[in-house]
Amino acid sequence: MPETPWPLDVKAAYHRRKAVEWISESEWMSMAKPADQQRRQRSRRDTLVSLFFGVLAVVLLASAAWIYIRDREETFSPAPEPNIPGANEMINVYNVLTESDLEVAYGTDAARIDGVTQPGQELIVDGVPVWAFVFIGQEESAGVAQRATVAASLDPSSLTLTSPSGQPINAGDVTVISQSNVLVVVSGEASPELRERIEQAVERLS
To answer: β-strand 182-186 against 175-179: which pairing, if any?
Structure first.
């Protein structure tokens, strides 16, 4: 009786099983080890790459922060005191106030005095509005002379400050301080002690 041939799928399964039986456990381990090692090496390499880029990101961020702070300090570094008396600028007013241990910030508003062309720049000194009018002329003493003329014509008890658009500024009973080419108007919100400290600071202007 002729031998019945095996179906192809059964025959293939039989040979695969035989092939597996022929491979010993040690041979299976030797075949598996290189694959395990490769996976571990690949994982270690990926970890090192991630760590490298993480450190690089931190370094770049720190460098950017340092450059920003350095540039900011250079941009806002105080201007030196003027060598020429009567040539003060707004930064010099700011400096003498901060050097007197007063907290000073530039305000956002300007003020005008009726009959005075020069506008006043707002400063916030210890939380109180102060307006500094700086007079600058073409000659060395021109700013001082302009300030003296304006100061002589002002009556603090009736002084009215207005915004550039003409709206009155509620400044209360103001104090007017004159020194060199600068006229400072202190809001009535300031305490007597604060007014005195501002006056002492402004008097240091040359």
So the answer is: antiparallel
Beta-sheet pairing, 128-134 with 120-125: antiparallel
Q: Rounded to whole angstroms, how far apart are CA atoms 109 and 179? A: 22
Could you tell me the two tokens for 136?
A: 């600058």
Alpha helices in the chain (DSSP H): 8-22, 25-75, 90-98, 142-153, 192-202
At residue 162, the 3 state secondary structure works out as strand
Are 92 and 79 in contact by the 8 Å Cβ rule? The answer is yes
Q: What is the pTM of this model?
A: 0.60
The 10s digit of each residue's pLDDT in 108-157 is: 999 999 989 999 999 999 999 999 999 987 776 899 999 999 999 999 99
The span from the CA of 45 to the CA of 39, in Å, is 10
